[in-house]
Amino acid sequence: MPLPIADRWFDVHRVDDAITCLTEPHVHPFLRCNVWHVRGRDRDLVVDTGMGIASLREAAVTLFGHDVVAIATHVHLDHVGGHHEFAQCWCHRLEADGLEHADGDWTLADATFDPDDLSTLRLGAFALDGAMLTALPHAGWDKSCFRVRPARVTRRLDDGDRVDTGDRVFEVMHLPGHSPGSIGLWEAATGTLFAGDTIYDGPLADNFEKSDPVHYARSLERLDALPVRVVHAGHEPSFGRDRLRTLIDAWLRERGAR
Ligand SMILES: [Zn+2]
């Protein structure tokens, strides 16, 4: 049965005056990344860009300011599909290759992807049950042509770097484990953390090809000590410090690291 055409591709949820979350409700939950928009005085940030199935820029044209930097918390396909639409792309230096040569493991056009069958999708160790998509972005969308398009990295980030919007400053936290160059963005003034996939309120993934459970444990210990007020994560709803510490504790105990 042909998939229906979506009325609109992104759900838009305003968190406060400056922060908005966009999601792709027709994408399988495992791949449904949170796209975070932070309005700044001099420049806006977009933290992760979703699958790239529909244009993020077009969907958010009234939301984005004139100067927008697209940051990648890491370069798994569900987080970087829209980066090619942005002239400024920043990510950790260890992920830069993956963003500029997005033709490796993280496309839907590789050998394991049957373009005529979206009912199952294999991603490394993960096989998704159920439809990868429950709708198409527009009539005539050709799933066989879908792939994550490369983007030019214009700044390679390191731990401790400052990401400045003019009126807000975020510190880059290098949080390896889920992937080698995973980062968080930490705003000490408000206790706000954009965490990517290092921590979210769901089953954490430490078994991708380039994951490292030992590094992961260290990264989580680092977040455990942070005076967080709110975590805006790569997937699932946001949460506060108590939940953060509970999630970290559960993961570390499960892995025998605590
Ligand atoms: Zn990921």
What order do the helices and strands come in, and which of them pair?
Layout: E1 11-14, E2 19-23, E3 35-38, E4 44-47, H1 56-59, E5 68-72, H2 77-80, E6 88-92, H3 96-100, E7 121-123, E8 126-128, E9 155-157, E10 162-164, E11 169-174, E12 183-187, E13 192-196, H4 213-224, E14 230-233, H5 241-254
Parallel strand pairs: 4-5, 5-6, 6-9, 13-14
Antiparallel strand pairs: 1-2, 2-3, 3-4, 7-8, 10-11, 11-12, 12-13
Helix pairs in contact: 4-5
Shape label: globular
Report the sheet with the most strands, covering strand number, pairing sense and barrel closure: 7 strands, mixed
In terms of DSSP E residues, the strand content is 15-25%
Corresponding CATH architecture: 4-Layer Sandwich
Radius of gyration: 17 Å
List the ligand species: zinc ion
SS field, number of helical segments: 5
